[in-house]
Write a structure and sequence with these properties.
Shape of chain A: elongated
Oligomer: heterodimer
Structural class of chain B: alpha+beta
Number of helices of chain B: 8
Number of helices of chain A: 9
Distance between the termini of chain A: 58 Å
Structural class of chain A: mainly alpha
Helix content of chain B: 10-25%
Radius of gyration of chain A: 19 Å
Number of strands of chain A: 0
Distance between the termini of chain B: 55 Å
């Protein structure tokens, strides 16, 4: 309830060309602000609201990409923030994004362990069409995107997680490194390999179809 | 220079590709080449997911907060409405720990209101709205006593374990209005109503429509479902949409027909009794495309006489049509009526005689059309955020718009001249004029209903609804006027509104 008011205020104070969905802290100042928010939330859990505002969309999108339906993503997002608010004392400084996404990662992994992922494109929140595309191009593009999603589904859990953290969670390699327990360099290499692997598979598939 | 959404996404993509390009740790052979960059674009596009809406954000926050806040030490076990017994049970072992019986008087309501952020308040009131001395004795054992009849009414739904039906205390409002929250869905079954979410599992209720006689209601939720509810025959019809394809829906004034908007601005008409479907325009050809697209913005509205339907969308289709239902012909075709494909249509409503059509957009503009002659009367600017509520007053000389910039603007319904701006304390979720046209009621996501005097814009009163409100509508039936509020959890609350 309080959230809505704060969100509007926050959006109103943003420069016009800044995305409403706050990206990772780009500056030391921003990191300090987040640190102060965490300290305030420790004293009073309701003060977690500004951080929730900052990260809700990214956490939700990450969850949505890893599970089946928006409803499931909403439940998982709720679990993530419940755990975060209960674990405020365990925060020892550092990147808040990485700390939060580590919790999100664990929540998603536990969820997927209990129930193997089954992605039905009809039910997910995937955006299936570009509104501005012309009809023919749209069909081709939609087919290509569908193929890419099929190929992503064949990747390992780790690789799918990397892509979801990068693309839906909008995380930097440094932040992903904290989440998955690797160095930023290793994350970059893995991401690069994953995309190259996907590209190769994609070319093979489309090549076979063309034949 | 400001960027639009697609430009921002493009920039974000370029950053992503650039980060890969600069990756010195990348193993040979594949340094990022143009082909891989192109594939990355495809990958980003394929992996894109929908952004959650504000309602989801509020819902998740409330749910999370409820879990982390400490549970109340007591809960209300029994409210003996007419016997006057209040029993307090310990939340851990469920054993009654305190009991109070007011033998010499009758309690109208006594409920716990568990405050989210600490403390418990016991509201106790007799029929006159006064607290009893015995009630005060009970409350002395808890935290606080509040003598606020409005709060008593709004807290009533929390008393779910009432042993008898509770007669709600009446809440007097100044300036000739009296609003009483009658029941919430959990109790409506006892007085002959049905609970729609028992069969439909409604998501956030974002649209409430009713037939002219109030006998049929249509509820539209954020997941794209539409549920028709025949209150007289106790029949229900649910229309689950495919994704957001059928997001636009309207109920005819006779309650028989539901119109759905297709992606191109065409119409799908469904007769609830027979199930017969009728399609107008190019809806039939486009429906397959529509099923795979995300266009939750194509809206429809019936004219009050039920003879015409307006359907429109902004975005990919950019169309605004007005159909004559008897002939199936297009009365008005304003294809491509706006240039901007980024804004979205958010609200669409006719005035009482069906001559004027108002529409509100995601960029905060409101357009006022004369549909008889197909002329744009005025483009109303002033809001800085998307329109969340739009309504004509009963005489159609006023048009009110509520926007997410937390303002309500009142315009002339004749020429669109700006008349008044009201500042809201929270984000609005719905707006309606009272049936007598004297009050403007604005609901907010925080759960308040603000009553403003139309004459000078002063706030007459605020009613707290206990739960966040996602939509609002006035409905008239044989019992009078009801203010129907849709909630984020798929439930409704009903307030009877007496005007005197």
């Amino acid at each position: 309830m309080i959230v809505g008011q704060k969100r509007v205020l926050e959006l109103m104070t943003l420069p016009a060309d800044q995305p409403a969905e706050a990206p990772s802290p780009a500056s030391a100042d921003d990191a300090q602000i987040e640190y102060a928010m965490m300290l305030a939330a420790r004293a009073d859990v309701r003060q977690f609201a500004p951080l929730y505002e900052r990260y809700f969309t990214r956490i939700y999108k990450y969850c949505l990409r890893r599970v089946e339906t928006p409803q499931e993503a909403e439940d998982l997002t709720s679990q993530v923030f419940v755990r975060a608010m209960r674990a405020l004392d365990s925060y020892r400084g550092g990147m808040v994004a990485a700390w939060l996404f580590r919790i999100a990662h664990n929540v998603v992994v536990n969820h997927l362990r209990r129930r193997r992922p089954y992605v039905s494109l009809d039910d997910t929140g995937l955006e299936l069409v570009s509104e501005t595309a012309e009809p023919i191009k749209f069909v081709i593009r939609a087919e290509q995107e569908a193929l890419v999603r099929e190929l992503v589904a064949t990747l390992s859990d780790y690789q799918q997680d990397l892509l979801a953290l990068k693309l839906s969670g909008e995380m930097t390699s440094e932040e992903i490194g904290v989440v998955v327990g690797k160095s930023a360099g290793a994350v970059r290499v893995d991401l690069h390999r994953t995309i190259s692997q996907l590209r190769t598979m994609f070319q093979q598939m489309t090549g076979e179809r063309d034949k | 220079m400001s960027m639009n959404r697609s430009e921002r996404e493009e920039q974000s993509l370029e950053h992503f590709i650039e980060a890969l390009r600069q990756d010195t740790d990348a193993p040979a052979p594949p340094l990022l080449d143009a082909d891989l960059a192109a594939f990355s674009r495809l990958l980003v596009s394929a992996e894109r997911v929908k952004s959650p809406d504000f309602a989801a954000q509020d819902r998740v926050w409330q749910k999370a907060l409820l879990e982390v806040m400490p549970p109340p030490p007591f809960f209300l076990d029994t409210v003996g409405g007419r016997s006057g017994t209040v029993e307090l049970s310990d939340a851990d072992d469920y054993l009654p720990s305190r009991r109070w019986t007011g033998s010499s008087m009758t309690l109208a309501a006594a409920v716990f209101c568990v405050l989210l952020f600490g403390g418990i308040v016991l509201y106790a009131a007799n029929r006159q709205g006064d607290t009893s001395s015995a009630g005060a004795a009970v409350t002395a054992e808890v935290t606080e006593l509040r003598l606020n009849s409005t709060a008593i009414a709004s807290a009533l739904p929390l008393a779910v374990s009432a042993s008898q039906p509770i007669s709600a205390p009446q809440v007097s409002q100044p300036d000739g209005y009296r609003a009483v929250r009658v029941e919430d869905w959990g109790q409506l079954t006892t007085v002959g109503y049905l609970m729609p979410n028992e069969v439909a599992n409604l998501d956030t209720v974002i649209g409430i429509m009713s037939s002219a006689d109030g006998g049929v209601w249509a509820l539209r939720d954020a997941a794209g479902q539409v549920v028709l509810w025949d209150r007289i025959q106790a029949l229900q019809h649910g229309y689950a949409s495919v994704g957001y394809t059928l997001a636009g829906a309207a109920l005819s004034p006779d309650g028989r027909t539901t119109a759905f908007g297709a992606v191109d601005g065409g119409l799908l008409l469904v007769d609830a009794a027979s199930g017969v479907q009728r399609k107008l325009g190019v809806a039939e050809q486009r429906i397959l495309v529509a099923e795979t697209s995300d266009v939750p913005y194509n809206l429809v509205a019936f004219s009050p006489d039920g003879r015409r339907v307006a359907s429109g969308s902004i975005g990919a289709a950019r169309a605004l049509y007005v159909w004559d239902l008897a002939s199936g012909s297009l009365v008005l075709n304003m294809d491509g009526f706006v240039e901007d494909s980024q804004t979205r249509l958010r609200m669409l409503t006719f005035n009482n005689d069906g001559r004027l059509l108002a529409m509100g957009s995601s960029d905060g503009t409101v357009q006022l059309w004369d549909v008889n002659v197909g002329v744009l009367i005025a483009a109303l600017t002033g809001h800085s955020a998307e329109i969340a509520g739009l309504a004509f007053n009963p005489d159609s000389d006023l048009l009110a718009s509520a926007a997410l910039d937390n303002t309500v603007r009142v315009w002339s319904g004749q020429n669109g001249a700006a008349l008044q701006t009201l500042l809201l304390p929270a984000r609005p979720s719905g707006l309606s004029f009272s049936p007598d046209g004297a009050a403007l009621i604005v609901s907010t996501v925080t759960g308040d209903m603000h009553f403003y005097a139309v004459t000078d814009g002063h706030e007459m009163s605020v009613i707290q609804n206990a739960m966040p409100i996602s939509s609002l509508a006035f409905v008239q039936d044989v019992s009078g006027w009801m203010l129907v509020l849709g909630g984020g959890d798929g439930t409704l609350a009903i307030w009877l509104v007496e005007i005197f």
